[in-house]
Q: What sequence folds into this?
């Protein structure tokens, strides 16, 4: 790789990153000094933001900045997978939950599990210790080679070979863990629901005919006439009597302001229409006023 | 790995040419890419309205410009001058940034698409592509997954329940269909042995993948329509049923940006389908000699992309809208399992070929035939599910239609043209007399 450094095409940023074994190129340094503060600031913003959605957005920004770092470290596969999996899928699920919960809902401070806070603090400290130890070890003991040399055949073949040879067992264990988690979520989500057989259209009709429902047909709708348009007006049966089932109990329970209207009567549409004749009378008077 | 890789630099020919590009050429390409996105959007809106109008036997836009082709430009200008309304309950910063988040990735995905072959621009040899990453296909997927943020944030920041629900539906749809989309790409990557778009096009020199990998192609086309929220999967904004989806509260240029992003996304997935399955800019057999010229390849690419865009319009003009549960069932219970099974089949075939040295195609075919026969035999041996003969005893005397009612067969199509038949009015008039 070092023989390439003299070639003119190395001016491009990407190619320059590919040529460096251990030292950072100029392009890489520029990107680092721009995105480093950005990712740090958004990480701090994620903690300090009051709104949960803003917090999630800051986290997403940090993740994208990290993805660009991966790209600059000659790991384009890792970078884009970081964007697709973490930013695109995991954070999106977080956002879904946050938005459905609502922006003004405050967290409950009641401790549900006993000793939860103490355990959280202890485990958090242990995790921090683990991280510091791991990162410290890689910083001082492991010599940095650069992905251009470590995976000279390209990102994908390198990762593929490692996953299916040296790290096969951890890989399979991780996938088993994930599948268990998904199955557990499904079981927990559906276990509380009573198993209820879903009836198709035909089965529902048959059940109705067999008398498993209160009546064969759906409930009749309210009466809608030219003289009244309230849903509180009952429908009329063919013999002119009122269909009790057409009235909704909820609406009847409310106080309905009665408008001056003629009694609900289907025959009013054909014979002796008091409302209509009143209307015409009013119209004629208006006309007379205009004339005078 | 790849035969075209240069042994010294470890780069393919395309990557070498792109790394050689001077800065002015890169800027020129960026500007042209942006222009292509915008112009294709303007063209696409107009084309869609005209084609749908023709399918519905009406003229469509025909006032502004020659034959109405400038209608969408006029509409865009009008949008820019409309009042920009900020809802009272809106989260101002997020409301402002959401259309931007949705538009930028849509254009960004353009950068990895190989529009044509090797050409010479002002004496500089290059390829019609902005950048050729070794993971080019993933770039497109990543861009679409960031684009979802624009939708979700736009809906949430509007502070309106309609927008929020529309955004959640829209995002759930895009994410669900992205899985099927990603799985359908796997087969292509396996066959091309590379994630780089230029390599995939080059690998189709011996045969396009749309017939070599037909199931993948079908799944890709279905899920690309689902992912772009287009009819018959346009449930989030179903303009004839709902208020307007996630951009209910948006007006003016912000709304225009969402609109632009939607159409650019359509162009992107069409271009991606062309790249992955239709051999990119390659001309088919009788015109194979055109493949020497990069500009002619660009024309082929454009034609193929326009074919896909026409399919988008065609679907919108013909198919009724899905119900949400039908749509999700199609995605999760049909497309994803079929994709997984198909990938498994490909793995099996490749493993078999690798183990036998790739020589015995006949033995492979015989094996597949035996497997199919065994599956068929099992299918015949399984007892048929018997539907119980239901004789329903009606519980009440409520009048119901006969339960064994059969739908009568459709009457034969009439042969005589409409003009020759007697007008219906004359017949009824006679009866009245």
A:
């Amino acid at each position: 790789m070092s023989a390439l450094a003299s070639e003119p095409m190395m001016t491009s940023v990407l190619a320059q990153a590919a040529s460096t074994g251990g030292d950072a190129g100029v392009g890489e340094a520029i990107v680092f000094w721009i995105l480093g503060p950005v990712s740090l600031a958004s990480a701090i913003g994620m903690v300090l933001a009051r709104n949960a959605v803003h917090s999630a957005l800051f986290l997403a920004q940090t993740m994208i900045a990290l993805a660009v770092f991966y790209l600059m470290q000659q790991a384009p596969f890792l970078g884009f997978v970081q964007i697709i999996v973490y930013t695109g899928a995991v954070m999106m699920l977080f956002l879904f939950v946050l938005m459905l919960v609502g922006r003004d809902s405050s967290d409950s401070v009641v401790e549900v599990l006993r000793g939860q806070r103490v355990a959280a603090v202890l485990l958090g400290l242990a995790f921090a210790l683990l991280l510091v130890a791991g990162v410290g070890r890689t910083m001082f003991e492991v010599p940095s080679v650069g992905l251009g040399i470590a995976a000279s055949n390209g990102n994908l073949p390198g990762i593929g070979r490692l996953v299916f040879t040296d790290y096969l067992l951890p890989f399979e264990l991780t996938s088993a863990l994930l599948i268990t988690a998904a199955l557990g979520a499904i079981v927990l989500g559906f276990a509380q629901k009573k198993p209820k057989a879903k009836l198709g259209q035909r089965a529902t009709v048959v059940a109705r005919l067999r008398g498993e429902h209160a009546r064969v047909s759906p409930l009749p709708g309210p009466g809608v006439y030219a003289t009244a348009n309230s849903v509180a007006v009952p429908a009329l049966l063919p013999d002119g009597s009122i269909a009790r089932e057409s009235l909704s109990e909820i609406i009847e329970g409310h106080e309905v302001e009665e408008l001056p209207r003629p009694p609900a009567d289907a025959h009013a549409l054909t014979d002796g229409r008091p409302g209509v004749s009143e209307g015409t009378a009013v119209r004629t008077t208006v006309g007379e006023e205009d004339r005078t | 790995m790849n035969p075209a890789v240069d042994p010294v630099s470890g780069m393919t020919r395309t990557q070498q040419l792109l790394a050689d590009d001077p800065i002015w050429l890169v800027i020129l390409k960026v500007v042209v890419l942006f222009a292509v996105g915008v112009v294709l959007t303007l063209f696409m809106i107009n084309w869609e309205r005209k084609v749908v109008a023709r399918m519905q036997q009406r003229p469509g836009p025909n006032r502004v410009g020659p034959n109405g082709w400038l209608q969408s430009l006029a509409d865009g200008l009008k949008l820019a001058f409309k009042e920009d309304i900020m809802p009272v309950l809106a989260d101002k910063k997020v409301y402002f940034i959401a259309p931007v988040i949705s538009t930028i990735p849509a254009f960004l995905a353009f950068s990895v698409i190989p529009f044509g072959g090797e050409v010479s621009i002002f004496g500089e040899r290059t390829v019609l592509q902005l950048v050729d990453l070794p993971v080019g296909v993933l770039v497109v997927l990543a861009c679409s997954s960031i684009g979802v943020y624009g939708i979700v944030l736009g809906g949430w920041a509007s502070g309106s329940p309609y927008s929020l629900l529309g955004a959640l539906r829209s995002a759930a749809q895009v994410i669900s269909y992205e899985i099927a989309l990603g799985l359908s790409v796997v087969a292509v990557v396996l066959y091309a042995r590379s994630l780089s778009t230029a390599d995939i096009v080059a690998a189709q020199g011996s045969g396009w993948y749309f017939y070599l990998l037909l199931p993948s192609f079908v799944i890709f086309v279905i899920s690309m329509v689902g992912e772009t929220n287009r009819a018959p999967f346009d449930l989030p904004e179903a303009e004839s049923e709902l208020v307007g989806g996630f951009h209910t509260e948006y007006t003016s240029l912000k709304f225009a940006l969402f609109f632009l992003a939607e159409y650019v996304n359509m162009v992107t997935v069409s271009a991606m389908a062309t790249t992955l399955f239709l051999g990119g800019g390659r001309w088919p057999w009788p015109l194979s000699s055109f493949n020497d010229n990069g500009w002619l390849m660009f024309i082929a690419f454009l034609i193929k992309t326009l074919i896909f865009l026409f399919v988008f319009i065609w679907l919108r003009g013909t198919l009724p809208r899905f119900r949400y549960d039908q749509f999700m069932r199609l995605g999760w219970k049909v497309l994803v399992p079929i994709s997984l099974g198909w990938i498994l089949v490909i793995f099996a075939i490749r493993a078999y070929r690798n183990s036998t040295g790739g020589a015995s195609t006949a033995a492979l075919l015989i094996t597949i035939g035996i497997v199919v026969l065994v599956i068929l035999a099992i299918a015949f041996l399984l007892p048929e599910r018997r539907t119980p003969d239901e004789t329903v005893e009606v519980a009440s005397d409520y009048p119901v239609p006969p339960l064994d009612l059969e739908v009568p067969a459709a009457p034969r199509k009439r042969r005589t043209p409409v003009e020759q038949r007697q007008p219906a009015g004359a017949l009824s008039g006679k009866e009245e007399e």
